[in-house]
Amino acid sequence: MTQLFPLPIIQPFERLQVTDGLRITADRWQRAHDYHRHRQNLHYQSVHQPGIVYGLGVYPTVAPADVPSKYRDGYWLQIQPGIAIDVMGNPIIVPEPIDFHITTRPTTETVVVYLVLSYVDPTELKGLERQEMVRETFRIDEKNSPPIAREVELCRIQLSPDGAQLEVPGDVFAPGFNQIDVRDRLSVQARPHTMVMLAEVVHPDDPTAYRRSTQLASFVRSVSPLYPAMGAQLTALSLYELQATTTPIDLLYFTGEQPFLPTQTEATALQTYLEQGGVLLVDVPATGAALAKSMMDFAQSIGTPLQYLEPPLPLRAIATPDRQHPLRTSPFVFAQLPHFAEQPIQVLVGGGIVLVLGDLASAWGVSDDRLLPREMIRTAQEFGINILSFAAKRRNWMQLVRSPQPLTYSSSSPFESAAAVPRNVGEKPHSKQMERIIGQL
What we know:
2 domains, seven-stranded mixed β-sheet, 8 helices, DUF4159 domain-containing protein, DUF4159
C-alpha cells in the first residue's frame, strides 16, 4: 500500500533583486542562498517521495569501550553510513557508523520501538559556536509511536518483557521478538502521478463481504508495483460516516450478498458524494442478486440508471458496446471484458456508480480455495486499476470545474426508506433494458 505524503505548500518564491551598488549584508546573503535551497527542495517534494537513498543499515553491536558497565547490555545497535531524503526534500547524510543504545524496557507487555532519522538545520541549533562553515546534521531518535512526516524510519523492533537481547532476524521477511525489522523502511522513489483514496463500506453481518475484503486489500497492495504512476490507500467506514469524513475519498467499495437498504441520511450522503465526483464500486458476487437489484433501483432513483458497458449478445440489437469508455482504455486496454471461470464479467455504469457482476474481485489476490493462474490474477488487477483511474479522474476533473465549496448534506431526500424497508422491484416500473438485466441475475 502506497504511503501518502503531503504535497508542497502553494507559496510563491521571492528572490533578491540584484542591482549595481547593492550592499551585501549577512541577511541578504542568507536569503539569496535560501532561495536556491528552497527551489531544490520544492522540486524534490513535487516529483519524489522521501526515504533512504542507500546505506543506513542497522545491526546489533557491543557497547562502546568508554560506556559505563551498567549500560553494557544487549541493547546496542550500530547505524551504518548512508543517505536519506526527508519529506521536505532535505538530504540527510550520515558519514560514519553510529552506536545507539535502546533504552526502552517493557515490563508486562511487548512494546514496538521505532528508530528514526531526521534532518537538523544547523542554524536552528542553540548555543552553536559561530564559525565560518557549519555542517548540516541530523538526529536519531528512539520512539514508541510510528514516524511522523519529517522522520525517516531506519527500523523497528518488537521488544519482549523477558529482557532478551537484540539480535539479527533469522528470517528478514518474518522477524520475531527483539529482532531488527526493516520491512517498513521506505526507499526514495518517484511520487505517483495519481493517489487514489479508497474506502470500503463495512458490513459487520455479511460473511461474503468479509471474504472479499481480503482480496481488496491484496489488490491495493499490488497497485503501485504493477502501475507505478498510481498509488492507493485503503480505509474503512460506514455510509453514515461518509457525511462527516474530511478525507477526500475517490472510490467507495461496496460488496456482499445482502440488498442495499440505506437509511434516508445514508442515501442522501451517498447521492451528494456521487454528485461531488465520487465513484461507488459495487462488487456483486455470484450470490449477490439481491444487492444488484437494489443498487439498480437506487441508481434509477437518483436519475442515473445503469447501462451496460458491453451488453450481452441478446441486448446488442438495442445497445452498442462502448469501446472507448475509460474503464476499457485507461491505462490498460481491454478489447473485451475479462473472463473468469469461463464467464465474462458484466459491467454497468451510471453517473458515478460502477456495478460489476462476476468474479473480478475474487481474482484480485491469492485465495486458499481457488488456485487461479497468474494471467487471470494479472488481468483482474489491471482492470481494477482501470476502475481506480476512472474514479480518480472523475473526482479530480469534476472538482476542477466546480466551485470549491465544502460538502453539505441536506436534510431532505428523495428516498422513502428512512426505516430501511426493503424495496420491491415491482413497486415501480423499470425500463425494458433494466428488466432484462435483472432477469439475467
